[in-house]
Amino acid sequence: MCENFGAKHYQCQPLLEKHGWIEPKSLELHSWCRVILNCPDDLSSLLAAVHEEKRRDILNTCANIRHSAVYRRPQDVESIFRSLEAGIGLAKMHRDTTVVQHIQSLQSDFQAIIKETWSRKHALSDKLQTRLEQISTEQARLKQTAMQDAKAEVDNAFREAGARLADCVNAMAHKMASAAEVVSGSDNFSEPDIDNILLEAEKTEIAPFAELPG
Questions:
Q1: pLDDT single digits (tens) 63-74
Q2: Structural domain contains residue 105
Q3: How many independent structural domains does the chain possess?
Q4: Which domain of life is it from (predicted)?
Q5: How many C-beta atoms lie closer than 10 Å to residue 98's C-beta?
Q6: How many CB atoms lie within 10 A of CB 32?
Q7: Domain assignment of residue 51, given as a range
Q8: What's the rounded mean pLDDT across residues 88-108?
């Protein structure tokens, strides 16, 4: 754009020579913008009229585009759109409809990319949220299952302990009944009879009156 403008208007030749530019293709965007800013009277008749404040904003923004590219400064979405708008404004100042249309096309493409990127981001966020909810549900289910399994194990242990205790009580009652039959079957409690009773009780692993509290 700057090269075409310089080649088209002979009035630019003194400016080119003044800044050491041999021909229009030597022009660089940021340098050309500085020239327009610093020498408004020399080009005012060639450029489209723009409000002074807006004009300076357009030129400064365009001059900084190359600076940001050279120093690899990160550009956010807002900065990129601002640069594109400034490029369109500069092209309109130079009355270059071809460049205006080209930058507008770039602007539309960039807007489409941003829209698609945000759409994919939201889709991935929704997918991640769904997955996190599934994981949370699965964790709750596993926790509930573990608690139920633990309760079942405790209940089984209590039932087994109760059954063993009942068996022990029944066995003890049976042995006590056997000892009572031996005692009731004796008419006389002579010393030899008592010895026999104790002997029989000992055989059945029951010792009457043994370890009774005094």
A1: 787 777 777 778
A2: no
A3: 2
A4: Eukaryota
A5: 10
A6: 27
A7: 2-95
A8: 90
